[in-house]
């Protein structure tokens, strides 16, 4: 019984360390998105670009939807107002955000939580399919827990 509790305690400690890494990765991704948004909004000529970039970067933490909640309607409003150039520029900035996130997120998250990026990506995709948008967060957490279990198992079988 004591050995079981010791193993469970190690798994929980490793899992919390991984979750802490996931939070660090989310903060790093938000900073990256903020920088890209600042540059893009400044380049486009949007007033108060820094404040708007900060707001969008904070909203970008929401799994799956993220910055699209703001960027897509914003571009659509400009398109309907007849400002097609500005609408296309905002749309292009959103596409850049999505591409950078798709490339950087598994790399940064995988590095922070100690799981290979491909496993983080696969876990996230499977969890999104199974659980919907909340699966984007659950995927990384489940990958952390599985890694912790395998690491502890390896310690006790060696």
Automatic annotation (TrEMBL):
One GO cellular component term: membrane
Protein's name according to its UniProt entry: Sporulation integral membrane protein YtvI
Keyword RNA-binding in annotation: no
Membrane-topology annotation of the record: Multi-pass membrane protein
Family of the protein in this entry: Belongs to the autoinducer-2 exporter (AI-2E) (TC 2.A.86) family.
Claim: Nucleotide-binding is one of the keywords in the record: no
Keywords in alphabetical order: Membrane, Transmembrane, Transmembrane helix
Biological process terms in GO annotation: transmembrane transport
Transmembrane segments: 30-50, 56-79, 86-104, 119-146
Species, as recorded: Pisciglobus halotolerans
A Pfam family assignment: AI-2E_transport
Subcellular location: Membrane
């Amino acid at each position: 019984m004591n050995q079981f509790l010791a193993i469970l305690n190690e798994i929980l400690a490793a899992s919390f360390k991984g979750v802490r890494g996931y939070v660090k990765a989310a903060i790093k991704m938000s900073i990256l998105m903020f920088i890209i948004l600042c540059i893009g909004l400044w380049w486009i000529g949007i007033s108060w670009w820094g404040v708007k970039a900060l707001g969008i970067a904070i909203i970008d933490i929401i799994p799956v939807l993220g910055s699209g909640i703001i960027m897509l309607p914003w571009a659509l409003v400009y398109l309907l107002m007849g400002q097609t150039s500005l609408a296309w520029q905002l749309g292009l900035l959103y596409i850049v955000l999505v591409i950078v996130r798709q490339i950087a997120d598994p790399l940064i998250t995988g590095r922070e939580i100690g799981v290979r990026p491909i496993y983080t990506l696969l876990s996230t995709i499977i969890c999104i399919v199974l659980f919907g948008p909340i699966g984007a967060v659950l995927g990384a957490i489940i990958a952390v827990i599985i890694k912790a279990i395998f690491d502890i198992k390896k310690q006790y079988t060696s």
